[in-house]
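User: Show me a protein chain along with its predicted structure.
Assistant: Here is one chain, sequence first, then structure tokens.
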Amino acid sequence: MHRETAADVRTRILDAALGLLGEHGVTELTQPKVARAAGVRQSHLTYYFPTRGDLLKGVAAHAMATLIGPLAEAASAGEFTPALMAERVGRALADKRRARVMLGLVVSAEEDHAIRVFVREFVARVREGITALARSLGAQPDAQTVAGVHALIVGAAILNVARDDAVSRQEAIDAARMAVERLFGKPLRQARAPVGRARRARRAGGTAG
């Protein structure tokens, strides 16, 4: 029988927090409600996240990791493509949970300097992740391009939360595609295949690598 580790409990808490954000919004992100949703005692939750601000920061990092992490793994395996990035980012933009995390950070940063510092560092880490993904396929976006791509993604996500209809969700998906095309500097259909996939294709065709 699998014994739940501390990392498992922490992930369960963060997943529960994201679920509450998706269903009810930032106002539901309280320690007692997250503890109940995760099936843990509140004292157990506060062991990992002593304050609501700590919980919000943990959820933000978790939301980023669950989006960028799998894309980075695909890049390491030679399976990453701009089209895959557009699809995953579009799905994330249509998912209100991540946008509500950002909205929660914005509101909290107005009142808590520590949250504001975290947001600055968080934005930098997200942009580093975007840059690394682009470079994995040979693109070399400058800092201004990455900042614009990031702003487009965040803006589309927040507008989708505010409007919450089929049109806003489709616009979020379209924005993801536009952002990825901007990042790689070409339409998705012209972006080159991952190195791993290209090598396998050459081997199958009998050409030299």
